């Protein structure tokens, strides 16, 4: 699989990601391949499980930034939705929003593993 073949479900912004990585596809690939190893998703999962709202906000915000830099627009959007839910006091939406985020994260990791 090549970068241009990543799942349409990711809403992958290849041109934007390449611009952020100085046009280097090799550098972008290196950072994409680090996503599954990053501890942020595990931290977010733990925070959601323990209803640690500051932890949810912090980890979701971090994941949003990582996803944005990597051009993973679906993951960025679902991370942002979780951040907004915490900030606006919509804690009852967290389980549903986290389920969406988890799906986006798993899709990204699955596709990245094929690069």
How would you describe what is shown here?
By secondary structure, the chain is an all-alpha fold. It has a single domain (3-113), classed as Four Helix Bundle (Hemerythrin (Met), subunit A) (Up-down Bundle). Helices cover 68% and strands 0% of the residues. The chain contains six helices and no strands. It has helices spanning 14-20, 25-32, 40-49, 53-70, 73-87, 94-113. The model has no long low-confidence stretch (mean pLDDT 96).
Uncertain parts: none
Number of strands: 0
Name the average pLDDT: 96
Domain tally:
1
What structural class do the secondary elements suggest?
Answer: mainly alpha
Major sheet: size, sense and barrel closure? none
Please report the distance between the alpha carbons of the first and last residues: 5 Å
- Put simply, the count of helices is 6
In the CATH hierarchy, the third-tier topology is known as Four Helix Bundle (Hemerythrin (Met), subunit A)
Please give a handful of descriptors for the protein shown.
115 residues; mainly alpha; Four Helix Bundle (Hemerythrin (Met), subunit A); 6 helices; 0% strand; Hpt domain-containing protein; HPT_dom_sf; phosphoprotein; Sig_transdc_His_kin_Hpt_dom
Concise summary:
68% of the residues lie in helices and 0% in strands. The protein has 115 residues and is mainly alpha-helical.
């Amino acid at each position: 699989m090549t970068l241009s073949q990543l799942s349409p479900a990711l809403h992958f912004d290849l041109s934007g990601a390449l611009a952020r990585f100085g046009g280097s596809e090799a550098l972008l690939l290196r950072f994409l391949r680090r996503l599954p190893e990053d501890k942020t998703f595990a931290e977010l999962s733990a925070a959601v499980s323990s209803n640690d709202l500051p932890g949810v906000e912090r980890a979701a915000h971090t994941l949003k930034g990582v996803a944005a830099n990597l051009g993973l627009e679906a993951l960025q959007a679902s991370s942002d939705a979780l951040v907004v839910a915490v900030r606006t006091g919509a804690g009852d939406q967290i389980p549903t929003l986290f389920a969406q985020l988890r799906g986006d994260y798993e899709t990204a990791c699955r596709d990245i593993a094929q690069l």
